Amino acid sequence: MKRTEVKQVINSKYPGPTPESLESPSPGSSPGPDLSSSPGPGPGPQVCEVFHRAVELIGRRWTGAVIQVMLSGAARFSEIRAAIPGISDRLLAERLKELEEELVLSREVEDGRPPQVFYHLTEKGRALSPVIDSISQWAHSWSENRG
């Protein structure tokens, strides 16, 4: 799937701001996305529950790194662990299980002695590629300008 097709799929399933909505606000309007239609108690704008769940999933410690490593081709537990310095076996296993439960990756066990386990990103997981790329670009841009 080409990058433009991935963006179209993501935009059709998770509509975000349009180019027009990112332009300067007209007089009397408020800047930023309109959150007023999002459900939630109390007055004022509320964070969209779908957005919040997605951010919480990919924002968990090590999850972004696991996805980034898997986007680059790592498929075995040992390959993923070796590519992420500092992650423990227990935490990596926990993150892989969470991502499997959320259908971001699939787990495949091949018969043999010993059995071999492979992890593969699903279409949902591969759709995170532009998100991870954007975060990476943002991180490099701001880490260079910290001064």
Helix and strand topology:
Layout: H1 3-13, H2 49-59, H3 63-71, H4 77-83, H5 89-101, E1 105-110, E2 116-121, H6 123-126, H7 129-144
Antiparallel strand pairs: 1-2
Overall description:
The protein is mainly alpha-helical and 147 residues long. The chain has a domain at 62-147: Orthogonal Bundle (Arc Repressor Mutant, subunit A), CATH 1.10.10. The protein is 48% helix and 8% strand. It has 7 helices and 2 strands, in the order αααααββαα. It has helices spanning 3-13, 49-59, 63-71, 77-83, 89-101, 123-126, 129-144, and strands spanning 105-110, 116-121. The protein has a two-stranded antiparallel sheet with strand order 1-2. The chain is globular, with a radius of gyration of 19 Å.
Annotation field: number of helices: 7
Please give the order of strands in the largest beta sheet: 1-2
Quantity of strands, as a count: 2
CATH class of one domain: Mainly Alpha
CATH architecture type of one domain: Orthogonal Bundle
Brief write-up:
The chain is mainly alpha-helical.
Features:
147 residues, mainly alpha, Arc Repressor Mutant, subunit A, 48% helix, 8% strand
